[in-house]
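Record FecCD family ABC transporter permease, 346 aa.
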Amino acid sequence: MTAAARPLPRAQAGRRSTRRRLFWLAAGLALLALLCALSVAVGTRDVGGNDIAAALRGRVDTIARAAVAARIPRTVLAALAGAALGVAGAVMQGVTRNPLADPGILGVNMGASLAVAVAVAFFGISSAQAYVWVAVAGAGATAVFVYAVGSLGRGGPTPLKLALAGVATSVAFVSLVLAVMLSHSEVAGGLQSWQIGGVGGATFARMVHVLPFLAAGFAISLGCARKLNSLALGDDMAAGLGERVAPARGLAALGAVLLCGATTAICGPIAFVGLMVPHLCRLLVGVDHRWLLPFSALAGACLLIASDIAGRLIARPSELDVGIVTAFVGAPFFIWIVRRARVREL
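=>
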């Protein structure tokens, strides 16, 4: 084989990999479109195509069309929240090089939840915009705290220490949220339903306040894809390639915090989406974050919409909040990841 012929197999492999990724991208977009249609059509009252078309034109003169009008923002919110949590999970796993990293497991979601609960109970905040700022601040403070605790001792911030610090912090914050609700009965009802995590009652007016935070989070996270690829090689190798490790890690973490805080502010804490989605996407598109992050957004949107549909069908004519459904699915997945990763070696 001549020297000129040697790169050919690698080029062919690269083209096959790109074609495979494009195939899965088209399949994911088709699945997302199908799930969006089902989310609008399926619920306590099933509706047909004529009612959906009429509701899209602004006609809500029947119960079925009014149901469609209420489900459209709910579907949009589920897609946005799922995409945000999927990308945040992939970024956190890349920043910490921890296969167990997830906004829920690392306690970031519960940090945002506790901040909102304290602000509502003690400071009387009520505007959607204030919710977002408080949730983002709580998520950021918790991320710093968990990383600091996980960095103590010999070996620095190992995956196992970060996971244990996050779980312990999350459990402690759940207890504090319950204490706040028990001592402030006037806000306990609203906080309790929000604490479960769901997309019911969504409106476009409420979503407007979180869109700038989500847009900034997506932009920062996607812009850090190459940096995350460098960090995956290890700090020394990344520094040798010219990457400024600490700023790169901090910027990527900021994107994840913005996505987690904004999502928690409007939906409540939803766990396990950021854990499951990146692992599944790696099986399809590999570890390159330039592909992994967009696919995580797409898969996260599909997962949360599907979970919302399942919650409506399982408990018909009532419904289960999406946070309950993702917990049922995610807990076994978490156990499988721990066993597969051989937690003793983390």
